[in-house]
Amino acid sequence: MVASVNNSEHLNQSVRMEDEESSPDPPFEIKYKNLFDNSNDTQKSLPDISVIMEEHELPLIDLNRLSFGDFERDLCKKDIARASQEWGFFQVINHGISRDILEEMKREQVKLFKKPFNEKSNYKDLNFSAGSYRWGTPTATCLKQLSWSEAFHVSLNDILGSGGLNSLSTTMEQFATMVSELAQKLADILADELGRKSGFFKETCVPSTCYLRLNRYPSCPIYPRMFGIMPHTDSDFLTVLHQDNIGGLQLVKDGRWIAVKPNPEALIINIGDLFQAWSNNVYKSVEHRVVANALHERFSTAYFFCPSYDTVIQSGVEPGVYKSFSFGEYRKKVQEDVQIFGHKIGLPRFLVQSH
């Protein structure tokens, strides 16, 4: 009888180990066990994101208007600039990226993330640089700093001209080529509306400095108040986001968090820290987050429009809100703050000190 019980326990343990090895989900509860164990009350220590928020539509801009003649084109550009000032976020339709490419990107992304966790950790089917696969929050010191998500963060250099190694590679290259053109177009429009030199972005934001990030947010039934991505601002000029219909993206508007209603026809654009500094606070880099879903996993693809590390960010107007700084200096300070405090501080580090 004892032998039978022992054999049963051994069999159950073997099944659990096999399930863990074949599971696509990162081992969050194992890796961050101390964060959960050290909390007197796990639910109380997590951020209060359980309140059901009303979903809001982001400003919607039809980019076809850019080809309707001078008057309508100018109105469209002003709408883009206004949304960047008042929201820091907007969504675009007729953006030049076909529904077929977007749907194929989603299918390939799902296939990639359905691979076992151990396989993703050592993914070698594409020419991704070391460290491209990321999950959780390595610097988290408490539960509210933990992001329940995984991602492949890939330089455009690793994507463009990859030779079509497989269907994922081919699709990523098609998507990245079109989305980079879109980001360039929008950045030039925003520069023009400031009366600034639009060629700046073509010179500084090149494939070696821009990134594509494939995101997956596993369902989180155990801790439904967990962040998928903790609150942050983006450190680039612009981010272009394609998301599914699950929802979960939230941002700060007029001092309070609001939920963004998904629109399957649109891509979401948001202003990053560099554009806020470059525009002398005209355009706003807005804090945003993703909340975990207790029942459904969520997928999104983000394109980050970034300059070279030696690119100097300055507003070119007086009085300037921020000191001039290079993108490399900015990244270094962000990384230092994350290591020390567990979160990014960002632009306030570079404010001109009043005397």
TrEMBL record:
Keywords: Dioxygenase, Iron, Metal-binding, Oxidoreductase. This is gibberellin 2beta-dioxygenase. The keyword Metal-binding applies. One of its GO terms (molecular function) is gibberellin 2-beta-dioxygenase activity. It comes from the Eukaryota. It comes from Penstemon smallii. Residues 1-15 have a biased composition (Polar residues). Residues 1-27 are annotated as: Disordered. Belongs to the iron/ascorbate-dependent oxidoreductase family. GA2OX subfamily. Pfam families: 2OG-FeII_Oxy, DIOX_N. It catalyses: gibberellin A1 + 2-oxoglutarate + O2 = gibberellin A8 + succinate + CO2. Its EC number is 1.14.11.13. Residues 208-307 form the Fe2OG dioxygenase domain. SUPFAM superfamilies: Clavaminate synthase-like. GO terms for biological process: coumarin biosynthetic process; gibberellin metabolic process; response to molecule of fungal origin.
